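User: Fold this; tokens only.

Assistant: Input:
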Amino acid sequence: MRPIENASQILRRGGTVVFPTETVYGLGANALDPKAVAQVFEIKGRPSFNPLIVHLPHLGWMNELTTGVPPDALRLAERFWPGPLTLVLPRTERVSLLVTGGLETVAVRMPSHPLAVELLEKTNLPIAAPSANRFTQLSPTRVEHAKAQLGDSVDFYLDGGPCSVGLESTIVGWHEGRAVLLRSGGVPTEDIEALIGPLAVPDRLDRPLAPGGLL
């Protein structure tokens, strides 16, 4: 069996897979399976109130998992997806509060790494995947880095070589109708602002509004 097929079957059965994206390696599980998602938090040692990014097989899943999408969000998705941009949008009931850290918003993106794209297409499920490291540790850009931190706690490792971007995704959300920069990352802020105008920057909060809000 090809590694990509093995990884896809594991995800559909509720297991965990480390896989490459263009930003960093992710620790993935079926985003629609609360038990599988709970494993991700346990493996990472991640606080339950810290949201996860959900990786989508195609743009159509955006309609399944989000609602009330601002026009500017669609413009950003059409321009920068697949790629290192995450959008934080109101969730539908298909997304559990476990995935969102108790928030009524969900972070979604479409990765561009060929293996991530193939894995998502074969699995045909949204995959919740934070970086494949222990909480507060350095995010891995090679599969060896992830193995060194997570070891046998993960069901399968999919090796896609070094990550091309090596930097977390940029995260944009919306507050009172205005686009807000929640995290700088792989898509330059000036490129986003060239498309939709200036981004607001929120005050630092104790509770993260998006993945990566805590170090």
